[in-house]
Predict the 3D structure of the following.
Amino acid sequence: MTNNNTISLAHGNGGRLMQELIQNVFAPAFGVKTLDTTKDAVALDLRGHAVISTDGFTVDPIFFPGGDIGKLAVCGTLNDLLVSGAIPAYLTVNFFIEEGYPISSLTSIATSMGQTARDNQVRIVAGDTKVLPRGNAAGIYIATTGIGVMQRADLSLQRIRTGDSVFISGTVGDHGTAVMLARQEFGLHGDLESDCSCVKPLVEKLLSIETLKFMRDPTRGGLAGVCHEIVNSTGLGVRLKENAIPVQDQVRTMCEILGYDPYQLACEGRVLFVCGPETDLAQLKQISEDICEIGVIEDRSSQVLLETSLGGQRIVPELEGEPLPRIC
């Protein structure tokens, strides 16, 4: 007997229950009156150079302060397109759902995805659903693929030069810390919200900055991961200033207790970008007051160095292992 309140294996067999799931859950959530399930492909209207990105999401817990796996999946893929210099237009969505998962929770996730896509003028145009036997998954996984139109094809690691300035668009480590606190492990609790958001409003303005050379969203591996990507690709060094990098008190406290480095924790609504040395910080502040100049590109060492608040310096290591599994 099928429980109408939870996902069953029959919801993934292509029959009546799958059609009901599409029409009763996904179509309303994504703002489409009727999804055409009679075709295996969708025609897109693209005017310009197309860009594509794809990603998978397995966050635990599925609902966390500031978001959920649905919002995270949409923002994550849209942000990858945006920092590549493209404006997102379309999304496809794949769901991998464990048998017994509550349909009410699935509806909340789908609604979150649809709203986030609409808020950023993006259409969810295709997708697929697979149901896994009970015990073969951790609730729900989501994979998204985004298609956008290139606006700035000149953004590249290869354009970075000695003397360029490094900027961050807001506090770092918020997502990783918020998810960890939501797990209520180690007896730690807090009210910190994830920075999970789409960076489209910010990036649309940054794209008009002529001195902009490179952008990246510091997700897994955090700020440190992007800086090491710069070092490994250019052979140059990155010198960061501890006093200039914005870190919330809850993030710093948790890192001190558990021995984490806040610069290695994931962000899900931030942009790290590099501009030429002639860039006016005051002009960037007009785009967003949260933008901070946090470092400089130098040629003296192929490593990431941090000038500490005590006047010394230390090497910022690249993340190894996975201290926070299922974070995004």
